[in-house]
């Protein structure tokens, strides 16, 4: 029988009542003839609570025990979902990650999936079981310890199962009814997209549209898993939600598909560093070692052998970045006159695969911001994205203006 993967996020399993609703959706697909693999998150808020408990217990905690604790939320919902399905006379049972086993590497709290053997679950399907409920977000390391896949990781669990079982589709049930042109809380003109390309979704996901874990989209792209994002709170048809798919499956060709943003950015500038071979490596090496997620980088024109280097990173990493750079300075590896941090910036990006073939998108974006009197602090571009760093207080205005100028409200 064809396999379908259905993933239910935290809000979709937040109460016993919601678990019942989700189970009914699963029942509909079973009735259509699918063998279903259900991936569940923990009840909403549960993982945050568990993470908090770990922090309160131990400041520099053992990551293996962190994983033991924070993975437990999914165990509860997996068992409850299986019980609910059994109550509906649907043959179902639950699996924790280690039982499958979902094998990962040993990078606790950020583990990567290495292998998902299918024989265990397939044997049960062959015996007549119709639904395998699997606890998302967790696996087992080569050392036999419980691992977790990073926050939002059950999306990645779902896609990995869809790839391993060659599923017809991977449906991600969440509290929004799809992927939007931008966050509807910022403009009510935001429109749900019927389809979006993997590449676009990757840009939107990593730019702060928090619908799917970035790694889940990377994985879906690599294995060609058709991914559908839809709401568990509405009656659903087969066309509901947003399909994340290959570029070739998308007919409409507009330059920009969505406006993404990230509110909590910081801009850091090293003033007057020596402009010599190896200087960038000397700066960004220590930052990488300190785990700083550097995003945009700009090196200015140099004068008399000295230049300024600017980069952006999440605002909550500024203190760590400062420490890493000052340590490198003390060690004599780099030399700068001053390190200036601006913690009041936000990043706004226009994303679209259509940019590859249409020119003038950047010019239109800059003109729009200029008409609104918004100063651009840093610009970065890729093939399908233009990002600007601006003062945070103008972020909403910029998103609304760009949404208008690229006519994203129109289908
Ligand atoms: N429960 C985990 C988290 O909150 C994993 C997930 O829901 O995707 O991050
Ligand atoms: Mg999520």
Automatic annotation (TrEMBL):
The identity of this protein, by name, is Aspartokinase
Which UniProt keywords are present, listed alphabetically? Amino-acid biosynthesis, ATP-binding, Kinase, Lysine biosynthesis, Nucleotide-binding, Transferase
The enzyme's main class, written as a single word, is: transferase
Q: Which residues bind substrate?
A: 47, 74
- Family assignment? Belongs to the aspartokinase family.
Pathway in which this enzyme or protein is active: Amino-acid biosynthesis; L-methionine biosynthesis via de novo pathway; L-homoserine from L-aspartate: step 1/3; Amino-acid biosynthesis; L-lysine biosynthesis via DAP pathway; (S)-tetrahydrodipicolinate from L-aspartate: step 1/4; Amino-acid biosynthesis; L-threonine biosynthesis; L-threonine from L-aspartate: step 1/5
Domain of life from the UniProt record: Bacteria
Q: What is its EC number?
A: 2.7.2.4
Q: Listed GO cellular component terms?
A: cytosol
Domain ACT: residue ranges: 268-348, 350-411
> Carries keyword RNA-binding?
no
Residues bound to ATP: 7-10, 174-175, 180, 185, 210-211
